[in-house]
Structures are given as C-alpha cells and as structure tokens.
Amino acid sequence: MEFAIGGDLYYHLNKEVQLMKEGFSEPRTRFYGAEIVSALGYLHSNNIVYRDLKLENLLLDKDGHIKIADFGLCKEDISFGDRTRTFCGTPEYLAPEVLEDNDYGRSVDWWGVGVVMYEMMCGRLPFYSKDHEKLFELILTGAIRYPSKLSIEARTLLSGLLVKDPNQRLGGGPDDAKEIMVQDFFKPIDWEKLYRKEIEPPFKPRVQSDTDTCYFDQEFTRETVHLTPPNARSGPLDTVEEMDEMTNNFVQFSFHGQTSSSLRDGGAEMAVDSAE
C-alpha cells in the first residue's frame, strides 16, 4: 500500500487529548466513523471479517481520508449467519463473544467500531485495565459510562454498537452496515458523496514533502531501518532448512508463519489458531 502520510488515528487522538483534554469533536468523529463503516461494509459484502479494528490500524492519506491497514487477522468466507471461532484481535477491542470462546460472526467488527468511536469522542477506552483478566471481565460484564457532553444521537449510536449480545448489536442483522448508516448520528452524511470522496475531511495533513514523517512518533522514525530478509535471493527457497532460516527473519512481527499466538503488551495482538 502507498505511504499513508497522515499517520494513524492513535497519534492524532493522543495529540488532541494532550492539547484539549478531550477527544475529537462529534463532526470529526462522524466523518471518520462513516468512512470506517463504509469500508467495513464493503469487506463484509465480500464475505470478509476484519477482526482487528483499532486506532493504530486506521491511517490518514494525504487528503485526510481513512485507510484501514493490517489485514493479517481477516477471515474470509464469512457471510451473514456464518461463524468462526479463532481467538484473535487486540485485548482492549475484543468483543464479548470472542472472550467467551463462542462461535462468532461479522458483528465483532461493529463492536470494534463502537470502541473506536467511543475512544475518539471520549478520549479514552470504554473498558481498560493493565491486567488483562480484569480488562476481559469489564468487557464481559462492565457497564459503560458516557460523558454528559455527548449528544443523544452519539450516545444512542454507541450504546447500540456496544451491546454485549452480538445478535442484538447494531449491525448484527442481515442488513449489516445499513443498520448503522441510517442512525440519527449519521444523518448529516451523504453516503454517495462519501463513497466518491466528495466530502472534505475535517483535517488535512500539513506536510512539507511526499516523505514527511511529522505525523509519526519519533520513537519509530528514529529507529535504524533494517531490511528483512537481510540477504536478497534471486530464486525460490529450496530446502526446509532455508525456509526455517527465512522464518527467523520475521519473529519480531505480530504474525508470522510458525507462531500460533502472539501478545504485545499495551496494544497487544493475540491469535490462537483453532479449527475454523
């Protein structure tokens, strides 16, 4: 994919919280939320469940439009009524049905939309604990607290998306994304114009060049670039030993061929393989 020069929404929300002590405005969240819903609706229409929605995977292009990145946890061949059961995702964004180790469908993505939209408008996660066991208990049984500043339309949307029962969750029916698109919160959105990118984004990255990295944390941009694999090959791998050697080049990634689970502290990704 091309360089998303605007950085990710995690970076931008952190800056907003530091400066304004609160999250994005409702109009800004509405725009981002609408583009996310549109993108996920497209994936679902092609029988793909995304399964890892979080601010770090939501990037901005040069004009300020959303791009969803990192499709490593996607599951194909899931239409309405189909189920899968792999325990995967990022802890703070996991849907209750995933934590309960139940079969689940595409509505896990709409739970993720609820979490990221809550996070954008409120400046914090709806459920959080450094202890994953406590975090999971909060997701399964905890009540959500909404700031008084939220409009009725925003609160209604979030409470519909963050329903713990996937069968009752907004978007959980056969109409999928359309259930969300007709909500009062999204009434100002002209979905056809949004699809054609004719709605001006609320924020446009101000960059000095096509390689400007000002919207990326210096923790990452200061790192020395290491190419993997270190030794270029002109042909295919010939032996099992060569394949094992190549696999070792990717152990620092959250997903690689020989691992069945991975967990990063903080915004950790987890994947436990099972029969799907």
TrEMBL record:
- Tell me the protein family, please: Belongs to the protein kinase superfamily. AGC Ser/Thr protein kinase family. RAC subfamily.
Keyword Nuclease recorded: no
Give the molecular function GO annotations. Answer: ATP binding; protein serine/threonine kinase activity
Q: Which domain of life, per UniProt?
A: Eukaryota
Residue ranges constituting the Protein kinase domain according to the UniProt record: 1-186
Class in the EC hierarchy, top level = transferase
Enumerate the InterPro entries for this protein: AGC-kinase_C, Kinase-like_dom_sf, Pkinase_C, Prot_kinase_dom, Ser/Thr_kinase_AS
What protein am I looking at? Answer: non-specific serine/threonine protein kinase
EC numbers listed for it are 2.7.11.1
Q: Does the keyword Protein biosynthesis apply?
A: no
Give the AGC-kinase C-terminal domain ranges: 187-265
Q: What keyword terms does UniProt attach to this protein?
A: ATP-binding, Kinase, Nucleotide-binding, Phosphoprotein, Serine/threonine-protein kinase, Transferase
